[in-house]
Amino acid sequence: MWLEGRVVLITGAGSGIGRALALAAAGEGAMVGLVGRRLGPLEAVRGEIGRERAFVQHCDICDPAARRKLVDAVRERFG
Question: How far apart are CA 3 and CA 11, in angstroms?
Fold first, then answer.
């Protein structure tokens, strides 16, 4: 598993390509930060990955302050 011990942050992780990337990264051993605007789909993906390996964060990535808050939250969760 080539991503073992790594943290991957994926925007748009609730559907489409973002969802597929999140599942693939988790399958390769990564801890996954799931980011998007709709919490319902993100929670569903976290359910597929597992709560211990995935973190859900609502974020508007167009907002610089929200991006900083996102990075801080992921660092707090995964170190």
Answer: 18
pLDDT in tens, 9-49: 999 999 999 999 999 999 999 999 999 999 999 999 999 99
Helix 16-27 vs helix 39-49: crossing angle, to nearest 10 = 20
Residue 47 one-letter amino acid = G
In the numeric block, which tokens belong to residue 21? Answer: 């990337």
Assign 21 to helix, strand or coil.
helix
- Does residue 40 contact residue 46 with C-beta atoms inside 8 Å? no
* Separation of alpha carbons 32 and 44, rounded Å: 14
Neighbouring C-beta atoms of residue 61, cutoff 10 Å: 13
Q: What is the DSSP letter of 15?
A: S
Q: What's the whole-model pTM score?
A: 0.88
Q: Which two tokens stand for residue 55?
A: 């973190």
